[in-house]
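Checked the freezer inventory, then went back to the computational side. Two predictions to log before the end of the day. The first one is the construct we discussed on Monday; recording sequence and tokens without edits.
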Amino acid sequence: MSDVVGSLEAANSPTGAVEKHRAAISGSDDGAGQAPKLKRHPEADLRGKVVIITGASRGVGKQAALDFARRGANVVLAARTVEPDPTVPGTIGETLKQIEDLGGQAIAVATDLAKEEDLKALVNAATSRFGGVDILVNNAAATQGEIWGKSFLELTREEWEYQFAVNTHAPFTLTQLVVPIMAARGGGRIVNLSTGSGEVFRQAEEPTKLNAVGGFSLAVPGYYSSKRALDRFSNCMAPEFHEQNIAIISLHPGLVATELVAIRVREKGLDPTVAVPMTVPARMIVYFSACEDPWEYTGRLFWAEREMAEMGIELDEELDQETAHAAH
């Protein structure tokens, strides 16, 4: 799930955060201590690889699922939304049909990420249908409901724990379930969708976070705290997983033009023009999953738009156009 709140903060910050971030992308930022540019590595063939994607009924998760399927991967779709809901667009059944229409292979597994038994059933479904798991994309997050408008003192312990159950504990459990499977298959990749933080912007300290933009609350302490915990989990586990040829990488998608972002931007009267297409973070999810040498990236947190520009990574449709042009 894209970082709706953190991205809206960047898009509407009176301090001009978007301009600063885009300057950093182009290399024109005057900030000190910039990290060396990342190296782009060749991408391996994903045909036959088995990918689990949570939050695959809409948004970045759905787009990534379609992109993996186009590359020949076998995709396991996980989400709670099975039946159409008038309040939120998309179902895993719709994503499944689109993949099948592309000629791809996929299964849809109804999954409540807050329930451990559902997570075990998801991994069992993947191994039963496709024989294993090679890539795990922890994309889903708890981003709906009244919790988004509540201040810290209004937040109940149950609501706080639910944010951690979905945003932190579910990735922990899924990772614990798939790591032995990946190790037995010679290695794998885990990509965790995160939120904006100090590592993303390569600053020595995290910038002060805005509490609100106009009447739109940006507090959401459970979301930010649980996502930062997920960041640290990835960082902590990277050395151990490296020994098993498994890379674990965190990715901040930025402000993405998902269906839910469009709804919230419209409701709050915010500026939608800075949103990037869903294809941008989806492309970076695929890149980090397919790159032949992931060890420069493992245990670190990246920003999709900046990294895509810095490494010169093309969208899949741009690659298709280049290939067709070369053929003629």
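The second is the one RB wanted added to the comparison set:
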Amino acid sequence: MAKTKKKKKNNKAQQQPNYLAQTMDIALTIAVAAGMLYMGYRVVAGGVKIDQGFSEGSSTVTVPEETTEAAPEFQSVETANSVVHEGALILVNNYYALEEEGKNLVSLYDVKMEKESHSFSVRDGDLMVKQEMADSIIAMLDDFYEATYDDNILVISGYRTQEQQQSLYDQYENQEEGEETEQRAAKPGYSEHQTGYGVDLSLYDGSDYDGTGIYSWIDEHCAEYGMILRYPEGKTDQTEIMFEPWHYRYVGVPHASVIMDKGMCLEEYIDYVKEFSFEGEHLMVSDAAGKAYEIYYYPADSNQESTLVPLPTGAENYTIQGNNVDGFIITIETGEAADADPDESAADESSTEDEASSEAPAEESEAAPDAEEAAAENE
């Protein structure tokens, strides 16, 4: 019996260590968990990680923050360097020759008839200009007629070929006058008229056009149609052409607005625009219609056949034109000017409709005078 009891006692002694081990495992687990809470951890509250006091020297796990790649500040347009010599802003004078002529010309008379315009006369059906110039001068002279009821204006000259310009230049060169030939007529290949963007005005009744009287309206408003007085008074030193109140040039609305407002000639404007680079300040312009524009200059890469012209990111309505000298002039239409007054615009439209509904005097014949009279062109 004693042996049996001793055996049972030994069994109890063998079971005791197992119970203690389990108890120690549980206690150790609780201690470790409490230690972790005590030592500190990162609590995420409201999406912000808050440090709960790790002791010096403790290590932390860094969670990388979500990053968004910054959008590029510009986009590039590969532009052939030949474009330097194209567009309505090309400077053609005694120093910068026209590279190409006779491209994309239309008959001013034909376009005028298509638009059913009867507010002025054209020398004949062979007078050619660029489409932009045709649209511009027709719109301007139609509005001039609405404002003055005068239809006496005659367009006597537009595009000239190399041969026509040579003939005119020789004519002035053979005349004995005090002024130099180049101030009366440009050298062949260096004439505005060979661009297709210039026209000369006269009067149907045979009088000379001098831009005075009711015709001062044209100088006051030509910029609204993208045109400038190409050879203004007091600018002969810059243009090397005498004052010509009859010669108008298409350059585009925003550029014409700056040129006429500042009293510049085209030579001065081409230099002025170079002050506005892509990297620096841009020329901000608003026209009479309330449209806003951003203008700057970018030089052509003379070491390549093309140039990567930078544009602001998101630019859509833009043009890249050459200056015929050394680079590009970029024009971006950015929307309506901040100071545009919609009420005023509406009032202007209403006023125009009222004027149009009023009775206008009967229109006179628009037939051009005898061709020999029309051939006496200036510049």
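For RB: DSSP finds eleven helices and 15 strands in the chain. The chain has a mean pLDDT of 80. Let me know if you want it refolded.
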